[in-house]
Amino acid sequence: MVRLTHKQTDVGSVLHDGSCLMQQSSLADDERRTVDSQLTLLSNRWEELRLKAMDRQARFVISHSLSFIFSIHHHQCKAVAYAVQVDRSWA
Known about the structure:
Blueprint: H1 2-23, H2 29-90
Helix pairs in contact: 1-2
């Protein structure tokens, strides 16, 4: 995710430069369409990559959170079992 954040600046810069290029009156119509098409393609691919990275990060966090919760649950069950055993030995 850190690499993605660093690359976001690069992609943003390319999109900005392309937008500036589109505003230049020296571009022919076919060149303008080509630049617009490439900018749209880059923007769409970047968004898809960003969403996949966010999904992957969310799954990672959930997986590790569940492991932590299960570990705590396991330790609590052991503690309860020990408490029951001690209680029975006192009875």
